[in-house]
Amino acid sequence: MLGAAGLLPLALAGCGSDASISEDPDELVLWYWDRSASPELLEQATAEIPGTGRHLRADVIGTSFDTKLRTSLAGNAYIPDITYINSNNALYFTNEDLFLDLGELGADSVKGDFYEWKWNLGSTPSGRFCFFPLDIGPTGYFYRQDVFEQAGLPSSPEEVSAAITTWKDWTDLGIELKGSAEAFMVNDAQTVFEGVLNSSPERYFDSDDNALYTAQGSAVREAWDVAVAAIEAGITARIPQDRSTDQNAAWSSGRTAGHIGAAWWTQILEESAPDTAGAWRLASQPVRAGNNGGSFAALPHTCKDPEAAIAFLTWVTSPENQALAYQDVQLFPSTPDSFADLSYSGSFYGDQDPLDFFSTAAESVPTSFISTWETVIGGSFTLEITNVETGGKDPERAWNDALDQAERVLTKRGVDS
Q1: Euclidean distance between CA atoms 107 and 101, whole angstroms
Q2: Cα gap 200→224, rounded to integer Å
Q3: Which tens digit of pLDDT belongs to each residue from 332-364?
Q4: Directed axis angle between helix 374-391 and helix 189-197, to 10°?
C-alpha cells in the first residue's frame, strides 16, 4: 500500500511561479530511475534528440520517485519536461490535467507499433492519452524441469502447459508434486493471488470507478479463492515475498520448484539460483498470460517543448531502440517488431528461448483497467491473504476484513464503493 505522501492532492500554484528545472532553453530534462532507461540511448539524446535541435538532460531520481514528482507538480516548480512513471500510472489519474494529452501531439501515429493492451493502459478514464508506453512484463510459469521429472510429472514446456490450462489443473499438479517430490509450486500465496488477477480483464473497479471486487464472483474474489485453494492444498512454501534469502534458497535447493512471474524474472532467477542453470523452463500460465510491471512516460503541463519531447518518446521507444534497451538493461519491449532484432544465447533455460516465450505470451495479455483507487486498497487484500497463509487466519474472516479495510480507506478519501 502506498504511503500517505504518495497520495497527497495536487493543486497548481500561482501562475507567476517558475516551473522550469533548467535555464537552458534548448535542454529538456528527463526524470527516471536507475535501469528504467538505456544509458546508451540517453547518451545519444544528451548530445541531441534526433531531429529536434534540442538535447536531453537525464536526471536519475533515487528513492521516493513518486513523492518527489508529486511534490514538484503540486508546487508548480522544478518540474521535469519529461518524466518516467512506473506501472502505477493510475495513481496520477485524479490529476491528469497536470499532464499533456499525447494524442494531441500526434502519438497515435505510432500506436500500431505497440501491444494494444499496453497502449490502452496509457489512457485516463476520461479518454486522455497521458502515459506513453515503455517496457512491459508479460507473465508465465517458471518451473524446475529436473524436479518435475524426478516426480514423474509432465516436464517439457509443452506438457506442463497442457497440464495446467486452468487454475484447478495447476493446483492439482501441485498436489502431485508435493506428494511425489516434497516440493512446492510457488513460494507464497500472494504470488498466486497476483498471478490470477494480473491475467484478468476485470480488476477492482471499472473505468467509471464503480467497485467490482465486492460483487459475487468478481475477479478479485476468484483470485482470492485460487490463492486460498493453493494454501489449503499445501502447495505454497509459505515464504513471504519480503524474505528474499529464504526464497532464493528454496529455488536453489528445489524445495520450491516454480514461480509465477514476469519476463524480468528471467534475470532475477539466474541471479537468485545460479547453481540451477539449465534446470529451469517456462510454461504457459493457466487461462492466459498476464502483465506484471512495465512503465510509462509522461509530459507535465509545463514541458517547454512538447513537440521535441514527443519526438524523444517516439524515438526512444521505436522497435529498434527498444531492442537496444533490452540488450542494454533488459527492459522487455512493448513493440512486437523489436524481437526481430533480438536473440537469446543463454542456457539457463536449457534450449528454451525466453524472448520467444514472453513475446508470444504478450500477445494474449487482456486489456484491463487499473483504477487510482486500486493503488490505494489493493494492499488490504494481499496483506490478508498472507495472514491466511502464514498466520492461519480463517479465509472468510480475512476476506471480510480486507473488504472492511478497503471500505474504511475509500470512505476516508470520499469515494463511494
Answers
A1: 9
A2: 13
A3: 999 999 999 999 989 999 999 999 999 999 999
A4: 140
Determine the length of the chain.
Answer: 417
What the chain holds in terms of domains, given with CATH numbers, is 4-136+292-355 (3.40.190.10), 138-291+369-412 (3.40.190.10)
Q: Computed from CA positions of residues 117, 123, 124, 125, in that sequence, does the dihedral angle turn out positive or negative?
A: negative
Question: Could you tell me the three cell numbers for 280?
Answer: 529451469
Gyration radius of the chain over CA positions: 22
Encode pLDDT of 148-187 as tens digits.
Answer: 999 999 999 999 999 999 999 999 999 999 999 999 999 9
Number of helices (H), then strands (E), belonging to the chain: the values are: 15, 7
Q: Tell me how many degrees the CA angle 248-249-252 measures, rounded to the nearest 5.
A: 85
373-413 tens-digit pLDDT: 998 999 999 999 999 999 999 999 999 999 999 999 999 98
Per-residue confidence band for 3, with pLDDT thresholds at 50, 70 and 90:
very low
113-122 exposure pattern, b = at least 16 Cβ within 10 A, e = fewer: bbbebbbebb
Neighbours of 44 (CB within 10 A): 17
Classify 139 as helix, strand or coil: strand
Other C-beta atoms closer than 10 Å to the C-beta of 98 total 21
Look up residue 103 and give its DSSP letter.
Answer: G
